[in-house]
Hints:
Elements: E1 12-15, E2 18-21, E3 24-25, H1 29-40, H2 46-49, E4 55-56, E5 60-63, H3 70-96, E6 105-109, E7 112-115, E8 118-121, E9 127-129, E10 134-137, H4 141-147, H5 154-172, H6 175-184, H7 188-217, H8 224-234, H9 237-245, H10 258-271
Parallel strand pairs: 1-6, 6-10
Antiparallel strand pairs: 2-5, 3-4, 7-8, 9-10
Helix pairs in contact: 3-5, 3-7, 5-7, 5-8, 6-7, 7-10, 8-10
Amino acid sequence: MRWKTGRRSSNVEDRRGMRVSRGVKGGGIGTIVLVLAALYFGIDPSIILNSGIGTMTPSTTESIPEKRSPEEDQLAEFVAVVLADTEDTWHALFKQMGKQYKEPKLVMFTGAVQSACGYAQAAMGPFYCPGDQKVYIDLSFYKDLKQRHDAPGDFAQAYVIAHEIGHHVQTLLGISEKVHAAKSRASETEGNQLSVKQELQADCFSGVWAHNADRARNILERGDIDEALNAASAIGDDRLQKQSRGYVTPDSFTHGSSAQRVRWFKKGYENGDLTTCNTFQADSL
């Protein structure tokens, strides 16, 4: 990916080296487990935190000095460039729709973080919180993406950010609110299906970004799209379930299978048009 000459976004919050601790009353460790599970399965953790299951006490933040490698500093710079590129792309696309794009913040953190959606640990991976309209990422995830999920490459890393920005686009367009309302009336299986459609649409939106960003700024190099497709495949529900427990339960999918994630990213990339990303009315996923 050609990124080094790109603009750096000013919407990055660097919280690396800040240690966040969170106390619990009533629900205890069980509440933390539920919150972490909610993040993994694409559920707004504030639903659990506000349900009375347990009461979270105010978080405390401690700044811990840390020595950063030149490689990590460059990765942080890369994240700022990708975020800026998503800003430029979505500003243009929203303008075409007669709308105004509101830029999200991206928070880089170490270990754990407090968001409007609750307390989260790095092990849960990158996430978007609609409550504060921020994307959260511990840069160590990229090491896991490369080594644990066998999905290396800078454009694989860019895809991860673009996917989370896709959720921000859903929030701005009112899609996330509609999905949340529909889930409240749905069974668990139906709710999972809605989550899958929402996640696959975010994959499609990331493909739309790639198409339009390359057309406007020629950012793609040979092999970049293959890197993104490999990353999408690596984090499919079927592949992750097979790796973790040896079998697959489709009714429990919340993000989509590897094949589905690849298909919808490609659909967005090949068309570059948001209207092709309506997973909620698709005949098949």
